[in-house]
From TrEMBL, chain A:
Keywords: Cell membrane, Disulfide bond, Glycoprotein, Immunoglobulin domain, Membrane, Signal, Transmembrane, Transmembrane helix
SUPFAM superfamilies in alphabetical order: Immunoglobulin
Positions of region (Disordered): 250-279
Transmembrane parts of this sequence: 221-241
InterPro entries in the cross-refs: Ig-like_dom (IPR007110), Ig-like_dom_sf (IPR036179), Ig-like_fold (IPR013783), Ig_sub (IPR003599), Ig_sub2 (IPR003598)
PANTHER family linked to this entry: BASIGIN RELATED, NEUROPLASTIN
GO terms for biological process, alphabetical: axon guidance; dendrite self-avoidance; homophilic cell adhesion via plasma membrane adhesion molecules
One term under GO cellular component: axon
Domain Ig-like: 28-114, 119-215
Protein's organism: Amphiprion ocellaris (Clown anemonefish)
Name of the featured protein: Ig-like domain-containing protein
Residues in the signal sequence: 1-24
UniProtKB/TrEMBL annotation, chain B:
Entry keyword set: Cell membrane, Golgi apparatus, Membrane, Symport, Transmembrane, Transmembrane helix, Transport
Compositional bias segments (type: Basic and acidic residues): 433-442
Protein's name in the database: Monocarboxylate transporter 13
Residues covered by region (Disordered): 426-462
Cellular compartments annotated: Cell membrane; Golgi apparatus membrane
Family: Belongs to the major facilitator superfamily. Monocarboxylate porter (TC 2.A.1.13) family.
Superkingdom of this protein's organism: Eukaryota
Gene behind this protein: SLC16A13
Keyword Cytoplasm among record annotations: no
Record-linked InterPro entries: MFS, MFS_dom, MFS_MCT_13, MFS_trans_sf, Proton-linked_MCT
Main localization, broad class: membrane
Length: 279, 462
């Protein structure tokens, strides 16, 4: 073999072996703070996320922060050491944070910091009133990272029962931060009650209850009949009271000519009697 | 003798007319029925939200329901008055109450918006029209010296019941759904039947008794009877026409603040709660104004017509001041002007009806009130869209409020052209017709007496 060919092969082999090291040397290194867990006791204290660009072969253009895949506005800066401060951390502020460094001649570099919290249920109905036979929709919305798993239960005072779907009328749809419980064709005997949605993730769980009331079709009839009865009784009382007082009223009123005649003859008789008795 | 008793009554109502007694019971009945008519109409907003959701119609289409109801109530007022003149008030009011309740009960079964127009709008509106004017006229006939106070107390029910009904209707809708709530409301409206039952059937010695005995069955006589029931002859009398015109002008501007004050407050830069509070404050002083004005008018320090002119002019001035006060940006100024406006507008409502018997006499009051309601309502219908149009053209509410405020002031000026306006005492109410009646009655009684087979002592007893 030619001695030049062997040398060439060795150089290529070494070059290939060394390439990862070299490119590793070229890749920018970012020093990022560890993941943070937001708890109830730390809720007032501000949280600071830090990213430091330690090594980079080309000067970076700028850096910015992203949360859950969307850029956070007003975080673009040209510093190597960039921080993002969450002043009053709530469950809402948890998520996957990324500090991104942009370069002119190289692809972006980023580091991920996870901020985890217990889920917080932000939206649910306190009560739902539906008629018999209609469909009810109960929902719960949450904020928090990581996304929770949802369960629905029925609450009876202090005891919890899982939802009995033997009738096949219950449908649960779960998405990341949202869950929906649909009940079709409400049954007035079994369905009313308190329903609880429970959101659980690695850090903890929360739950909220919704009261479901089912209105019977006949429910308004009773007050209606009661009011009708009251009115009939009132009218009867009024008419009877008046009939009993009626004879007195006739004497006082100005009656048309016909009755007048009777009055005058009565008066005439009275006058005669008075004259005879001589007051 | 019983015949002589009629003369003092015709000579001076002030002294001999009824006042109190059964009148207070009728006042309570008027209180209840007015709240079930107007208080109910004003609180239907809760249902409209439900209708928009259920029937999937625009809120404008749904608001036509209450417009139809109000229009029907005012349109059928003369009919109610005429029926009272022809038959008796008790029957008319009980029928009206039944129709009002029936309309709401039928509405609970509606399957489309047109059904609601027909039931809640036309049928209930007809019922309300048959109830309001007869009840008001009956109460007014049962009071003389305390008439205005009675009216003030009765009309205060509108404001009070609007306050009470809004949360009540909300509760009913939540517990029973809108169908059940309408059913129960229909039942509650039937209470008007009980109120109507309280009206004691009284003889009425007024215009309709002037039926010509000769041509009883001819067409012309029928028309004459109908027109006398409707009191159409009033339309040819100058004092009545002047007064109706004045009240119509008042009506054109009167409702504008109720429709536009909240929007105007928001536009002036105040928050939703501040704007809503302004309305509530005006509503509260409205109730106060009705009662106070009624009490004060009955003290007889001033003539009713003068007090009415005063309140009307003040109301017009305060309506005009409303946009001016918010120009300065001061919330306190806006609230103060609204309070004053509310007081004046309530004050004039008590008096507006009480003046009518002073112009046309107690006997023709029923028909007069009916016609007045019909004519003034058409002016009211024109006034509010006009103010909306002005706002659309100019971009703010300054022009609408200015124009709206000028209407009551024009009304005051019109009132000043009433006969005997500038005298210090009330002129005697027109008694020509009733005197004729009494004369005819006397004559026919004498004839009856003469035709009796009795001795001459009967005639000497006269």
């Amino acid at each position: 073999m030619h001695p030049n060919a062997v040398t060439l092969a060795l150089v290529v082999l070494l070059g290939n072996l060394m390439l990862p090291f070299v490119s590793a040397q070229n890749e920018p290194k970012i020093n990022a703070s560890d993941q943070t867990i937001l708890t109830a006791d730390t809720s007032g204290k501000p949280v600071t996320l830090q990213c430091n660009l330690t090594t980079a072969h080309t000067p970076h253009k700028e850096s910015f922060w992203m949360k859950n895949g969307h850029e956070i506005p007003n975080t673009r800066t040209e510093q190597r050491n960039t921080t993002y401060r969450i002043t009053k951390p709530r469950a809402d502020d948890s998520g996957e944070y990324m500090c991104v460094y942009t370069f002119d001649t190289a692809p972006n570099a980023n580091a991920t910091i996870e901020v985890k919290a217990k889920p917080d249920i932000t939206g649910h109905k306190r009560s739902e009133n539906k008629n018999e036979g209609e469909n009810a929709m109960l929902y719960c919305k949450s904020v928090g990272y990581p996304h929770p798993t949802w369960t629905w239960r029925k609450v009876d005072g202090t005891s919890y029962t899982d939802i009995d779907n033997s009738t096949g009328r219950f449908f649960i749809t779960n998405r990341d931060n949202y869950t929906e419980l649909n009940i079709l064709n409400l049954d007035i005997n079994t369905d009313p009650g308190k329903y609880e949605c429970n959101a659980t993730n690695v850090i903890g769980n929360t739950a909220e209850t919704t009261i479901l009331r089912v209105r019977s079709h006949l429910a308004p009839l009773w007050p209606f009949l009661g009011v009708l009865a009251e009115i009939i009784i009132l009218v009867v009382i009024i008419v009877v009271y008046e009939k009993r007082k009626r004879p007195d009223d006739i004497m006082d009123d100005d009656e048309p000519v016909g009755t007048m005649k009777t009055n005058s003859t009565n008066n005439h008789k009275d006058k005669n009697i008075r004259q005879r008795n001589t007051k | 003798m019983t015949k002589v008793k009629s003369n003092p009554e015709s000579r001076s109502e002030e002294v001999e007319g009824p006042d109190g007694g059964w009148g207070w019971v009728l006042l309570a009945a008027l209180f209840v029925s007015t709240s079930l008519v107007f208080g109910l109409m004003r609180s239907l907003g809760v249902f409209f939200v439900e209708f928009v959701q259920y029937f999937e119609e625009s809120s404008q289409a749904v608001s036509w329901i209450s417009s139809t109801g109000l229009a029907a109530q005012q349109f059928f007022s003369p009919l109610g008055a005429a029926l009272c003149n022809a038959y008796n008030a008790r029957l008319v009011v009980m029928t009206g109450g039944f129709l009002a309740g029936l309309g709401l009960i039928l509405a609970s079964q509606a399957t489309c918006l047109a059904h609601l127009y027909l039931t809640m709008g036309v049928i209930s509106g007809l019922g309300w029209g048959l109830v309001f004017t007869p009840m008001v006229a009956t109460v007014m006939a049962n009071f003389t010296r305390r008439r205005t106070l009675a009216l003030g107390l009765a009309f205060s029910s509108i404001g009070l019941s609007s306050f009470a009904f809004n949360p009540l209707f909300q509760l009913l809708v939540e517990m029973y759904a809108w169908r059940g709530a309408l059913l129960i409301l229909g039942g509650l409206s039937l209470n008007i039947v009980a109120c109507g039952a309280l009206i004691r059937p009284k003889q009425r010695s007024e215009a309709p008794a002037k039926v010509d005995p000769d041509s009883r069955s001819s067409c012309v006589a029928q028309l004459q009877r109908v027109s006398s029931y409707l009191e159409l002859s009033l339309l040819f009398e100058r004092p009545y026409v002047t007064y109706t015109l004045a009240i119509s002008l008042l009506n054109a501007g009167y409702f504008v603040p109720y429709f536009h004050l909240v929007a105007h407050s928001r536009q002036a830069g105040f928050s939703e709660y501040q704007a809503a509070f302004v309305m509530s404050a005006a509503g509260a002083t409205d109730i106060l104004g009705r009662v106070v004005s009624g009490w004060f008018a009955d003290l007889r320090h001033f003539r009713l017509i003068h007090l009415l002119s005063l309140w009307t002019a003040l109301a017009g001035v305060f309506i005009m001041l409303l946009p001016v006060s918010s120009l300065s940006g001061s919330y306190v100024a806006l609230v103060v002007i609204s309070l004053l406006y509310g007081f004046c507008s309530g004050a004039l409502t008590s008096l507006a009806f009480a003046v009518v018997p002073l112009i046309v006499g107690v006997e023709r009051m029923m028909g007069a009130l009916g016609l007045l309601q019909l004519i003034e309502s058409s002016a009211g219908l024109l006034g509010t869209p006009l103010s909306g149009l002005l706002k659309d053209i100019t971009g703010n509410y300054m022009a609408s409020f200015m124009v709206a405020g000028s209407f009551p002031i024009l009304g005051t000026l019109t009132m000043a052209t009433l006969p005997h306006y500038f005298s210090c005492t009330d002129p005697p109410p027109p008694q020509r017709r009733s005197l004729d009646d009494k004369d005819k009655g006397l004559n026919s009684e004498l004839e009856q007496m003469n035709s009796l087979p009795s001795d001459t002592s009967n005639r000497s007893a006269e």
